[in-house]
Each structure stands twice: as C-alpha cells, then as structure tokens.
Amino acid sequence: MLDFTIQNVLIAADDDYATVDVQIIDGAIAAIAPNLQIIGTPIDGKNKLLLPGFFNAHTHSSEMWQRGIMSVFPLELWLAELYDFAPLDPEQVYLSALGTAVETLLSGGTSVVDHLVLIPGLELETIAIATRAYREVGIRAFIAPLIQDESLTAGIPSGESAQKHEPYFRSTAATLEIIEEAVRQFHRPDEGINILVAPTGIQLCTDALFAGCTELSDRYNLCRHSHLLETRAQEKLAQEKYGCTAVEHLKRIGYLSDRTTLAHCVWLNDADIAILAETQSTVVHNPLSNLRLGSGIAPILKYRQAGVNVTFGCDGASSNDSQDLLEAIKMGSILHNITDSNYQHWITPRQAVEMASLGGAKGLNIADKLGSLTVGKQADLVLYDLTNLSLLPRTDPIGLLVLGRPTNVVDSAWVNGKQIVADGKVTTINVEQLRQELFNRSQWETKRKSETVAQIEAHYRKVMGL
Ligand SMILES: [Zn+2]
User: Fold this and answer.
1) Which among 293, 291, 296, 329 has a CA at the least distance from the CA of 310?
2) Separation of 116 CA from ligand 1 center, angstroms?
3) First-to-final CA distance of the chain
4) Per-residue pLDDT reduced to its tens digit, 239-262
5) What is the pLDDT of residues 35-60, one digit of tens each?
6) Distance (Å, rounded) from C-alpha 107 to C-alpha 149?
7) Ligand 1 center to residue 372 CA distance, Å?
8) What is the pTM of this model?
C-alpha cells in the first residue's frame, strides 16, 4: 500500500476552513494537522479543497446506452420503452459500467450503488462483467442486481378493470439462487466490491421475493436496496395490492432497517416518514430523474426534520441524462426551497456535502469506515482544484462547489488510499479507448416506436385519470 501526505490543503472546519496536512497510511487517514512529517509520497494540496468522496447512491449503469433518446414519458411508460430497446450484451454492460464510474469519479463520487439491470439468461455474467469494470477503475462499488418476479404490466394499477398479467419468466426461487451465487462469487467488501439485495420495488415484486432478500441480507450481512414510491401510480398500486401504504407494508414484512436504502421516496405521507425514521432507513434522493419523469418532488425537508437519513443519487442515465453527481447535489438541495417558505429549513451547501458523503456511508452501514475526514477512516478522498475557472473568483469553496456549475474541478481522487484520478484524469483505465468504444458501438438516432407503450398507454391514461 502506497502511503502519502497531502500538504497545505484546505479542509472544512466547523463553519470555517483550515489549512492542514493529511497523512494516509495503509489506506486509512492517519493524521490531520498543520505541519505534519511527510510520510510516503508528498502531494501538493495548495489551493485545493479536500473532501470525503461522495456516494452516487442510486444508478443503473447500462441505461447510459439510451441517454438522451428516451421519450418524454412518466416512469411507467418510460420503463416500457426502456426495456423494448435494451438489447444489451455483456460488452455493453462493461463499457457503461466504466462510463458510469468515470463520470461519478469526475464529479466527486468515490462510491457507486449500481442497481444493475441483468441480461435475461446471462444474469451472473452481467454481474461478473460489471464487477470487472468497477475493479478495473478502482471505484468502490455496491452492485445491487435488479430483480423482480412479476411482469412489467403488474406495475400499473388495475383501477376498475380486472387486469391479467403474464407470469414472470423466471421463478422467485431461481432469482434468489442467482443472488446467493453472486454473493459467493463477488461479495468482497474488503476489496471494495459489495453485493446488495435489491428487489426493484413493491410494484413488481412479491412478498416472497422480499422475504428471500431479507433472509439473504441477514445471512450474509448484505445491505438492502429498493425503489420506493417513485410515482403516484405506485402509491395507488400499493393501496390496491396491500390495502395500506407501501411503507407500512415493507415495515410489516421486515424489509426496512438501518442498512436499507430506498431510492426516490416521492409519495410518502407523514406516518410513512415516521416509519422510515423509526426503522433508520435511508432515502436516496434522485432529483433530476424525478423531474425528468415528472414523478414529483420528494419531501426531503420533511425527512430531514423527522431525522431520516438522506443521500443523493443520479439514477440511471436514461432518466437524468447524465451521471454528474455535483449536478444532482445542487438540484437536490435548492429544489426544496420552493416547498417550504421557512428558509431556516433549507439545505445549506455544507449540509449537502455531508448528505452526499456521510449520508451515503450511513445508508450502506459503513459510517464507521467512510463518509468523513476523520482519523482512522478509510481514505476515499477527493481533491478539488480551486484555481479552476468555474470555482473563481475566490469566495466560499464549498458554497461555489455546490451552488455553482463546477466543470472539470476534480484534480485527484483516492479509494482506500489508492489514487485513481490524477491531474483531472482517471488513471486506471484508458478513457480515450472507452470514448472510442462508446462512439463506435452506437449511432445517432431520433424516433423510435415502443410496441409495449402502444399496448399499455390507453390503460395507463385511463387509470391515472388522463
Ligand atoms: Zn432507479
């Protein structure tokens, strides 16, 4: 392990900044103080800001192949279009995982939670190749294989009509076996690769699938992930399915816990919010995706006041349509100023940074090891260049990083003390070659016609009162 000392670097200290040296020994932060002895390689931190790495706490890497082209649709129709045009092969999964990692790193993230869409029939291969991509880049990866055991149309409320749905192509038991095998083959937390249990959400999963995931989570000490109440349709569906809210139901079946992260959480009521607080579940806020799909504005200020842990995600690049974590953090902070006129509740830039770092670590049950610049914690660090044009003139560095439009500001990044970004470039993979591959394997397109959308749109409109 390479030891190093970052010298004369700016860090946040209470309401102010301090200039310090930071020693990294064996992948962990060994000391933070002015004028330390240089251990290992010296790194010039002058005119740079050091922050703990952020978490891109919810994304779907392979959606990168359809960013920019998806129709202007709400989630349920958007999903139908997405899956009609997702003829992915493992090589594409590999490239989009690399791309997701690179964009996350260059916007301040050192960890990514990839709610990974599995290629039917090639499930373990999909997980294997995404794992390979993340290992090659060196980003800390939380791979959450996206599973369901009901077919797509079951995710839309029936309303007055009696809807029949095709059975899902794979049994619940077979799906759980895939996840267990993935845990055996790939779950290596000490090496920065984690497998999560991740049923896609109540809209497409049976209680048996949730129960199986909870059991695997308990047996192998795995974090839990899921979408939750992203749309009004899902709120309606939960009432149809359970006769109560989705949150009440998830609590009843034991899925909520202090290592459960829940993406979106747009349509929760006050009692639901109290349940999230009580179970210490984490909300992953995906503001850009929620706007793009018209899902709604998640009541993030209410979560914070209720003591619910909140962190940020980009969500997949088909509903965003990028993986710029700083953009998600900015939008996820200022969006809520219009939801509460009491400005004392608004999210400050420093709070946003803490949500993006410590908030992510808490949700993944590793706040003792990551998420802050604390002696003893692992060195997942990002160094920002404060001489970059977009961070000038000199004002409040964190204020401008969160509220401005920082461009190419990440100078260096380390994961577990290993440097994987230097001089603004990812050093572990050939990014130029990645760029070429993404270019060569795609083409400019405009109009596409989704057959599934054509089949379900009339019912969707009727049941949603449109
Ligand atoms: Zn998602």
Assistant:
1) 329
2) 9
3) 60
4) 999 999 999 999 999 999 999 999
5) 999 999 999 999 999 999 999 999 99
6) 35
7) 26
8) 0.97
The DSSP string of 301-345 is HHHHHTT-EEEE----GGGTS---HHHHHHHHHHGGGGT-S-GGG
Q: CA dihedral in degrees (70, 74, 76, 80; nearest 10)?
A: -20
Q: Ligand 1 center to residue 214 CA distance, Å?
A: 20
For residue 12, report the distance from its CA to the centre of ligand 1, in Å: 32
- How close is the Cα of 285 to the center of ligand 1, in Å? 10
**Using CA atoms, how far apart are residues 293 and 201, in angstroms rounded to an integer?**
17
- How many Å lie between the centroid of ligand 1 and the Cα of residue 27? 32
In angstroms, rounded to a whole number, what is the distance separating the alpha carbons of residues 409 and 401?
Answer: 9
Domains of the chain listed by start with CATH number:
4-51+377-426 (2.30.40.10), 53-363 (3.20.20.140)
pLDDT at residue 160, rounded to an integer: 76
Give pLDDT, residue 195.
98
CA of 48 to the centre of ligand 1 (A): 34
Which residue is it, tokens 């700016």? 10
**In this structure, are residues 110 and 415 in contact, taking their beta carbons and an 8 Å threshold?**
yes
b/e per residue 18-36 (b: at least 16 CB within 10 A): eebbbbbbebbbbebeeeb
**Ligand 1 centre distance from Cα of residue 60 (Å):** 6
According to the model, what pLDDT value does residue 444 have? 94
How far does the centroid of ligand 1 lie from the alpha carbon of residue 288, in Å? 11
User: Which residues in the chain come in under a pLDDT of 70?
Assistant: 1, 87
